[in-house]
């Protein structure tokens, strides 16, 4: 029965392979509309039957064989037992589950900030275009000091997320520290529904396409195919090469990463997964057909390229389809599955498998080593597009004039024009 439940929910989300822990997190805050006021807010508030269901699922499906039952029979808090799992496994309440489905479908209700936790500080990595944060003037490298006047000092990303999500009002006040400002700045941000732009693109005079994938949602495959078709149409011919920008991409669904990889591969293994239960052991292979007709590819990665982004990068590298430029990737080599609990309003996000690159390597905790190592501070998506896009519409000089601001793009241009 549990296999059936997992299969049922996977029709909506499939395996969830997103990095949402210490290093990088897309801050999702849901505006409560129709949830019951009696909704569980802590896993410790669950009833004994619900806890037993969670424990059963862990025993049956967790990637490692753990003995938790004996500890559960003690007075130890249930949250402490779940802490024995890896950082990517957790109980999802109604709000968190709904937020996960929304973001995977390319939309969510929130503030529109991407953050990372670094040296016990919550740092803004990007303000999503046209989001409340971007419109208000929140900037990259801003440091979050407080949420609704409550300090976030020494709090982790999950705690800060909870503070924003559980705010009593739709408007959230973020107190920001900015390097060039003497005093902290308060931003009053009203949560709104945001459409996440999964893919952006641009074209150089040389017929080299630029494609930035920001995350892997259910729409990414179609967006990538549509953007490449548009680039080829604008160029009037097949592209002479492609720059695939996966910098700061935190991941997304496994199936989306596999499908996008298959667009560029004629054959070969894309990724394999291994776990304790039967369905966790799978091998994904490319089918014949290359959307670029063999045109060379350069992939840009950095320390924030994680999970599904690493699957795509490794698939193209190990199959000798692309050259990788940048810095060592994040190193998240596990796959999470959603297991519905009770009536399906809550779920357990559980690590059920490890994934391995086509060469048979696990990148968990290691990351992918680029072919050309170039260190660079992470750019926001707006910066990436501006670097390669000619705002005046004249494509003849965009690469020579703008690429020096981005050494990875400059190296990518050099490699592709030499081929």
TrEMBL record:
<dbReference type="InterPro" id="IPR004447">
    <property type="entry name" value="Peptidase_S41A"/>
</dbReference>
<keyword id="KW-0378">Hydrolase</keyword>
<dbReference type="InterPro" id="IPR001478">
    <property type="entry name" value="PDZ"/>
</dbReference>
<dbReference type="Pfam" id="PF03572">
    <property type="entry name" value="Peptidase_S41"/>
</dbReference>
<dbReference type="InterPro" id="IPR029045">
    <property type="entry name" value="ClpP/crotonase-like_dom_sf"/>
</dbReference>
<dbReference type="Pfam" id="PF17820">
    <property type="entry name" value="PDZ_6"/>
</dbReference>
<protein>
    <submittedName>
        <fullName>Peptidase S41</fullName>
    </submittedName>
</protein>
<keyword id="KW-1133">Transmembrane helix</keyword>
<keyword id="KW-0472">Membrane</keyword>
<keyword id="KW-0645">Protease</keyword>
<dbReference type="InterPro" id="IPR036034">
    <property type="entry name" value="PDZ_sf"/>
</dbReference>
<dbReference type="InterPro" id="IPR005151">
    <property type="entry name" value="Tail-specific_protease"/>
</dbReference>
<dbReference type="GO" id="GO:0006508">
    <property type="term" value="P:proteolysis"/>
</dbReference>
<dbReference type="InterPro" id="IPR041489">
    <property type="entry name" value="PDZ_6"/>
</dbReference>
<feature type="transmembrane region" description="Helical">
    <location>
        <begin position="21"/>
        <end position="40"/>
    </location>
</feature>
<feature type="domain" description="PDZ">
    <location>
        <begin position="97"/>
        <end position="179"/>
    </location>
</feature>
<dbReference type="GO" id="GO:0030288">
    <property type="term" value="C:outer membrane-bounded periplasmic space"/>
</dbReference>
<keyword id="KW-0812">Transmembrane</keyword>
<keyword id="KW-0720">Serine protease</keyword>
<comment type="similarity">
    <text>Belongs to the peptidase S41A family.</text>
</comment>
<dbReference type="GO" id="GO:0004175">
    <property type="term" value="F:endopeptidase activity"/>
</dbReference>
<dbReference type="GO" id="GO:0007165">
    <property type="term" value="P:signal transduction"/>
</dbReference>
<dbReference type="GO" id="GO:0008236">
    <property type="term" value="F:serine-type peptidase activity"/>
</dbReference>
């Amino acid at each position: 029965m549990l296999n059936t439940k997992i299969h049922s929910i996977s029709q909506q989300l499939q395996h969830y392979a997103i990095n949402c822990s210490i290093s990088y997190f897309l801050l999702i805050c849901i505006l409560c509309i129709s949830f019951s006021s009696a909704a569980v807010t802590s896993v410790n508030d669950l009833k004994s039957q619900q806890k037993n269901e969670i424990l059963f699922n862990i025993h049956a499906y967790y990637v490692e064989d753990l003995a938790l039952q004996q500890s559960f029979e003690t007075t130890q808090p249930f949250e402490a037992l779940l802490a024995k799992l890896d950082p990517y496994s957790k109980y999802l309440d109604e709000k968190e589950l709904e937020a996960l489905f929304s973001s995977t479908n390319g939309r969510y209700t929130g503030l529109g900030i991407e953050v990372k936790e670094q040296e016990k500080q919550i740092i803004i990595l990007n303000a999503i275009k046209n989001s409340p944060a971007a419109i208000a003037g929140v900037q990259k490298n801003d440091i979050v000091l407080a949420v609704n006047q409550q300090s976030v000092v020494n709090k982790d990303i999950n705690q800060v997320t909870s503070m924003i999500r559980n705010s009593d009002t739709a408007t959230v006040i973020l107190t920001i520290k900015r390097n060039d400002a003497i005093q902290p700045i308060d931003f009053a941000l009203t949560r709104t529904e945001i459409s996440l732009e999964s893919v952006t693109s641009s074209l150089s005079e040389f017929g080299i396409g630029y494609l930035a994938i920001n995350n892997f949602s259910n729409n990414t495959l179609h967006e990538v195919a549509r953007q490449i078709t548009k680039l080829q149409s604008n160029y009037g011919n097949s592209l002479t090469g492609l720059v695939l920008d996966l910098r700061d991409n935190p991941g997304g669904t496994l199936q989306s990463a596999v499908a996008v990889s298959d667009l560029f591969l004629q054959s070969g293994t894309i990724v394999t997964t291994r776990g304790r239960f039967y369905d966790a052991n799978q091998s994904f292979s490319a089918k014949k057909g290359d959307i670029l007709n063999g045109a060379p590819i350069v992939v840009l990665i950095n320390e924030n390229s994680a999970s599904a982004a690493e699957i795509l990068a490794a698939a193209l590298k190990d199959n000798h389809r692309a050259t990788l430029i940048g810095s060592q990737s994040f190193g998240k080599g596990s796959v999470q599955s959603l297991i519905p609990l009770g009536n399906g309003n809550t779920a357990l996000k559980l690590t059920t498998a490890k994934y391995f690159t086509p060469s048979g390597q696990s990148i968990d905790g290691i990351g992918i080593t680029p072919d050309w190592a170039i260190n660079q501070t992470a750019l926001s998506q707006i910066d990436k597009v501006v670097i390669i896009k000619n705002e005046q519409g004249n494509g003849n000089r965009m690469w020579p004039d703008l690429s020096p601001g981005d050494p990875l793009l400059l190296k990518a241009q050099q490699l592709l024009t030499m081929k």
